[in-house]
Amino acid sequence: MTILVTGGAGFIGSNFVLDWLGQSDEPVVNLDKLTYAGNLQNLASLQGDSRHVFVKADIGDYDLILSLLKQHGIRAVVNFAAESHVDRSIHGPEDFIQTNIVGSFRLLEAVRAYWNGLQPAAKDEFHFLHVSTDEVYGSLEKQDPPFAETHQYQPNSPYSASKAASDHLVRAYHHTYGLPVLTTNCSNNYGPYHFPEKLIPLCIQNALTGKPLPIYGDGQQIRDWLYVKDHCSAIRRVLEAGRVGEVYNVGGWNEKANLDVVNTLCAILDELKPRTDGKSYAEQITYVTDRPGHDRRYAIDASKLERELGWRPAETFETGIRKTVQWYLDHQAWVENVVSGDYQSWVEKNYSDR
Ligand code: NAD
């Protein structure tokens, strides 16, 4: 049997592929368009490994996906492929609509056609797992309970609206066509191979290169953080044992204000790689104009996943963030490569205040 992973050259997808092939011999067909966020270097350790087949393609390519599904006898699809950066969605929502909504729709159509043609036993075994975000639920006030799976959808950015639309399509394909779907809505991930436009890798890198550490507004926006490998183990568990048609929230019970996250990073860097002038990296913190419509607080109630499927994160925020900082210190060549070219010109155009 074989699984199809879409977006498997991105941050979470590449961690998932590495984790999957580290634990089983079941091959992976990895379909990724290789946008600015896709990076095959993340998968360099799989070079020559026949269990990993990479295909550069768009999730919107119905014919290609249908033929891949048939050719490899795929028994599960894990859909990571998406445009994923909120700031980019504010500057230019079009790609988010195309990939996250239209692309997901075409992918679902190809999967539906394939699934309809399977023999009954293979049909029963098949799953389509859609990887989504807690951002679809909107923003919480300080006193509100964390998001449960029953929380109303209230997406506030073009990114979260496009992910919400894809979640609804996935749900509809189950209710209308009987497609055996599973959906996971996860909180903010951090860890190895995280593209350095996102808060944690951006701040680690800016700290090391003597640049400002940009904090939006007052820095009191709260996010719930999960180490990426714990997200991978949750997806694996849901794929193994999740109930078809169900949604599982994934989170680490780690609510942190952005400013506290950056101060933690600075403290770890002060210890692992002190600044040559003896000052703290925290001196580089710089407040910048807040993101428009910035959600104040996300928090995930992961108790359904814990109770029903016995999943638990292996890392606390403290252990995971330390591993992450160490990983970036050990992989400076990877970072230098991704912060050149396309990424750099985009940042210069859109982040002149940083
Ligand atoms: P990412 O931006 O790092 O990776 C996305 C990958 O998808 C890239 O490799 C990119 O090349 C590929 N891709 C984009 N458009 C494509 C298309 N049309 N066809 C095929 N491939 C395409 O994103 P990520 O952070 O790894 O997130 C992966 C998934 O997890 C997304 O669906 C995201 O919404 C979801 N998610 C992310 C987080 C997080 O904190 N990063 C949290 C919860 C859920």
TrEMBL record:
Keywords: Lyase, NAD. Its EC number is 4.2.1.46. SUPFAM superfamilies: NAD(P)-binding Rossmann-fold domains (SSF51735). One of its GO terms (molecular function) is dTDP-glucose 4,6-dehydratase activity. Its cofactor is NAD(+). Pfam families: GDP_Man_Dehyd. InterPro entries: dTDP_Gluc_deHydtase, NAD(P)-bd_dom, NAD(P)-bd_dom_sf. Gene3D superfamilies: NAD(P)-binding Rossmann-like Domain, UDP-galactose 4-epimerase, domain 1. It comes from the Bacteria. Signal peptide: none annotated. Residues 4-324 form the NAD(P)-binding domain. It catalyses: dTDP-alpha-D-glucose = dTDP-4-dehydro-6-deoxy-alpha-D-glucose + H2O. Belongs to the NAD(P)-dependent epimerase/dehydratase family. dTDP-glucose dehydratase subfamily. This is dTDP-glucose 4,6-dehydratase.
